[in-house]
Amino acid sequence: MKSAVKIMSTTSSTLSLLLFLGTLSHSLPLSTNSRWIVDAASGRRVKLTCVNWPGHLHAMVPEGLHKKPLSHIAASVSSMGFNCVRLTWATYMFTRPYFTNLTVAQSLDRWGLEEARAGLTRNNPGLLGLTLVEAQKAVVSGLGAQKIMVVLDNHVSYPKWCCHGSDGNGFFGDEYFDPGEWLMGLTTVAKLYKDEPTVVAMSMRNEFRGPRQNENDWYQYIEMGSTAIHKESPNVLVIVSGLSFATNLGFLKKKPLALNLTSKLVYEAHWYSFSNPTHKWLFQTNGFCATATQWFTDQSGFLISGPNPVPLFVSEFGVDQRGVNERDNRYLGCLLAHLAESDMDWALWTLQGSYMLREGRVGMEEMYGLLDAEWAHVRDPKMLDKLQLVQQMTQDPNSKHPTLYIMYHPQSGQCARGGKNGIYLSDCRRTSKWSHDRDGSPIRLKGTSRCLTIAGDGLPAILSGNCSSDRSTWGSVSDSKLHMAAKDDQGRYLCLEWSSLNFSAILTKKCLCLGDDLKDAPKCVENPQVQWFKLIPTNEK
Ligand SMILES: *[C@@H]1O[C@H](CO)[C@@H](O)[C@H](O)[C@H]1NC(C)=O
Ligand SMILES: *[C@@H]1O[C@H](CO)[C@@H](O)[C@H](O)[C@H]1NC(C)=O
Ligand SMILES: *[C@@H]1O[C@H](CO)[C@@H](O)[C@H](O)[C@H]1NC(C)=O
Ligand SMILES: *[C@@H]1O[C@H](CO)[C@@H](O)[C@H](O)[C@H]1NC(C)=O
User: Fold this and answer.
1) Is the CB of 493 inside a 6 Å radius of any atom of ligand 4?
2) Number of helices (H) and strands (E), helices first, in the chain?
3) What are the start-end ranges of the H helices in 146-284?
4) What is the pLDDT of residue 275?
5) β-strand partners of 314
6) Is 397 within a domain?
7) What DSSP element (H or E) covers 141?
8) Residue 23: its pLDDT value, please?
9) N or C: which end of the chain has fewer CB within 10 A?
10) Are residues 329 and 460 in the same domain?
11) pTM of the prediction?
């Protein structure tokens, strides 16, 4: 996680495998086929919907084990709808004999973390006497027991909060980032987990960055790292991240990576509200969503299309879950619309509601965390609603079903369902499918002859049998492509809008902020997200 604060200011403060074989829901290992991650044995698609869980900070003990039992944490990951955890680790835990031998209790004592130690004694007493590496294995097994897949992410070399450009962990040759030691760490971890099917992927390094970053070294070391992992553990997926805090893989357009990794290579990218530094989420929300989505596609998203597509794992995105950062709120709707449309694999930043120790602060709360500081409750259940659709697999490469659409409203996290006469918002997991040939054609409720139609300005959208009028001819009308509009009898565009009075009603109203594009640069003070609806392709039954 690149910290927003650090970007905006320049201050520097900134067990056993056999036990669980029978319980996993997919038959692992995984491999890749075109842009999809698939079950290697059957070829069926497996979508990674992960949450990040850090274990790379000072004590190198996965966060929260002092708050709740491991089985409880694993069960809550599963009950929140995730099938996977991106578990982070620090190289030194495996390469420095001093750390390798340290027990969990000793590591906590080293940092004077008495409360965390007391909490572990209560919640996970069996872990205290294990070494840090054994404790990590126990966490992997505990996740596997709940059918949760694990992506092991090499997050830093020196264990500490990550990431800013001058923290010594950013690029090969930095103070703590010795390439040989990094390769040794990858090799050790690959070997340790090669027979553990729960570990489906290893991500080679988080967020390359800083003054030393350069493409030549990147190509050279990525090849060495992937070879090292693949040699020890040929079944595991190898995940590769780009430069500039995992936001840039654009250089691959000029020079593809020539790796001997048939069906095992996955790329990863990060996308936060502050990733693209021009910051126009407010006042130009539609225009900037278009610009930011194009930026993401140019930098990384292009990898899933073209002649040689590969899977792209959006391994970090997230927001302040208190909802207090309006820039974050607007970005999230834009990102979720794109993530749903492209049906990429992803990992939310983040699970932890608090840390044992981060940047000198004991027990620091994490506002990007799904859980609260006590790891007891979901901080904001609305966040889980927003993830409902992207937690589903909407595109199945093996499906024989035709492409239909789900009508998604990212701000509420709900989807439009056809009722007797009208439409309303409800759970995306049990929603209607729609057919739509192209921009500027009717939107028909599957299995009926009824189409989405305007009744009038400020009135609920209806379903009518007359699909040929302008009032049932829908297209996207703003730069963000997130406004769905048709013309009323006077020839004016009206847009679908989430009702502010009745949270399941969908009205048609005057379109908001259409002219906020960056060229003409007028500013719109309204929040157009109430009108953001997106047709998400699906060929699932
Ligand atoms: C680590 O533990 C091993 C086995 O108990 C021991 O041989 C070795 O000396 C220890 N190394 C350090 C640096 O404490
Ligand atoms: C690629 O890997 C295969 C199997 O591991 C090996 O036989 C082959 O020599 C490798 N090719 C290159 C160019 O490294
Ligand atoms: C459908 O709508 C158009 C335009 O409003 C109208 O001219 C036409 O008569 C309608 N057809 C039916 C069958 O209602
Ligand atoms: C809210 O909207 C839904 C869907 O249009 C409708 O069924 C329901 O009756 C409305 N509730 C109220 C209180 O108006």
Assistant:
1) no
2) 15, 25
3) 179-192, 215-232, 243-246
4) 86
5) 269, 346
6) no
7) helix 132-145
8) 40
9) C
10) no
11) 0.93
Q: Which domain holds residue 293?
A: 2-387
Question: Helix, strand or coil for residue 408?
Answer: strand
Q: Locate tokens 């020890």: which residue?
A: 232
Q: Are strands 357-358 and 361-362 parallel, antiparallel or unpaired?
A: antiparallel
**What is the pLDDT at residue 464?**
96
175 lies in the same domain as 307: yes
- DSSP code for 354: B
pLDDT of 530 over the 60 cut = yes
- The reply to whether ligand 1 has any atom less than 6 angstroms from the CB of 491 is no
Backbone phi, psi, residue 173, to 5° = 100, -10
How far, in Å, from the CA of 101 to the mean position of ligand 1? Answer: 6
Q: Is the CB of 98 under 6 A from ligand 1?
A: yes
Whether 392 is covered by a domain: the verdict is no
What pLDDT, on the 0 to 100 scale, is given for residue 446? Answer: 95
Where is 494: in which H helix or E strand? strand 493-498
Residue 10 reports pLDDT greater than 80: no
Confidence of residue 521 (pLDDT cuts 50, 70, 90): low
Q: Using one digit for the tens of pLDDT, what is the confidence trace for 266-310? A: 999 999 999 876 678 999 999 999 999 999 999 999 999 989 999
Point out the ligand nearest to the CA of residue 264. 2
Q: Structurally, how many domains does the chain consist of? A: 2
pLDDT (average), residues 194-203: 97
* Nearest to 412, CA basis, from 336, 339, 326, 317: 336
- Report which bound ligand comes closest to the CA of 95: 1
| pLDDT, tens only, 11-68 | 333 333 333 333 445 568 999 999 999 999 999 999 999 999 999 999 999 999 999 9
Which residue CA neighbors atom 12 of ligand 4 most closely? 502
CA distance 404 to 389: 15
DSSP H helical ranges for 346-446: 381-387
The domain that holds 188 is classified in CATH as 3.20.20.80
H/E run at residue 330: helix 326-342
Where does the pLDDT of residue 522 fall: very low under 50, low under 70, confident under 90, or very high at 90 and above?
confident
CA distance linking residue 295 with residue 301, whole number of Å: 9
Burial class (CB in 10 A: 0-12, 13-18, 19+), 324: exposed
